[in-house]
Amino acid sequence: MVWLNLEDSFKYIKRKKIIYLESKILSSKKDVEKFSDFPYVLKLSSSLVHKTESKAVYTDIYSKEALGDAFDNLQAILKKEKIKGKVIIQKQVKGLELLIGINNDTQFGKVIVFGQGGVYTEIQNDTAIRLLPITKKEIEVMVYSTKVSKYFSARGKNYPVSKLTSLIEKVCEIAKDKRLQELDLNPVILTEKEIYIVDARINLKK
């Protein structure tokens, strides 16, 4: 089994007709000059599995100077870890941070996982798990069984839950790939207008 890096994980889900947040490669520090629509996020596409713990993600970048510093720091991580990788830049998106995943349970087979994502995944322990295959109605019940679902219509907000459930349906289809062992889309950002996959980890059988 092999973990795909971020770039290859995005290519995998794109082949499965799932769209992710626009991401570009910064080949050199000079590329920073091309970007001015702040804020941005910089992260590594490499063999590092946990980017946050490895300080391989920089968020809330509001200046070209900060972009350049983040680029240098990410390159330093690659050098320190003695690994190959690329620096990825994305427009920063604000919204509800969610998790959508596929796990392969040794006893029951593949399951779908949904819950609160980002840095709060382990802290909040707010996830729901269902055995696959699953119906659209069961997806809706799963989604609304979580604590994070209370934010969908709180304080006058109106998040497009139908776009979320449609994405989960597509992820469930991906689970039919016999090579797929694990899929982790975290975070998935739900705004009041759209839904964005901003990070992905995929484990495939060789």
Tell me what the structure shows.
This protein is an alpha+beta fold. It has two domains: 22-91, 2-Layer Sandwich (Dna Ligase, domain 1), CATH 3.30.1490; 96-204, D-amino Acid Aminotransferase, Chain A, domain 1. The protein is built from five helices and eleven strands. Strands 1, 6, 7, 8, 9, 10 and 11 form a seven-stranded antiparallel beta sheet that branches. It has a four-stranded antiparallel beta sheet with strand order 2-5-3-4, covered by helices on one side. Helix 4 (136-144) packs across helix 5 (161-174). The model has no long low-confidence stretch (mean pLDDT 94).
Top keywords for this entry?
globular; seven-stranded antiparallel β-sheet; 206 residues; Dna Ligase, domain 1; 5 helices; alpha+beta; four-stranded antiparallel β-sheet; D-amino Acid Aminotransferase, Chain A, domain 1; 33% strand
- β-strand percent reads 25-35%
Count of individual beta strands = 11
SSE sequence, one letter per element:
EHEEEHEEEHEHHEEE
CATH architecture of the largest domain: 2-Layer Sandwich
Radius of gyration based on Cα positions: 17 Å
Write the layout of secondary structure elements.
Elements: E1 2-4, H1 6-15, E2 23-26, E3 40-46, E4 57-61, H2 64-81, E5 85-91, E6 96-105, E7 109-116, H3 121-124, E8 127-131, H4 136-144, H5 161-174, E9 180-190, E10 195-197, E11 200-204
Antiparallel strand pairs: 1-11, 2-5, 3-4, 3-5, 6-7, 6-9, 7-8, 9-10, 9-11
Helix pairs in contact: 4-5
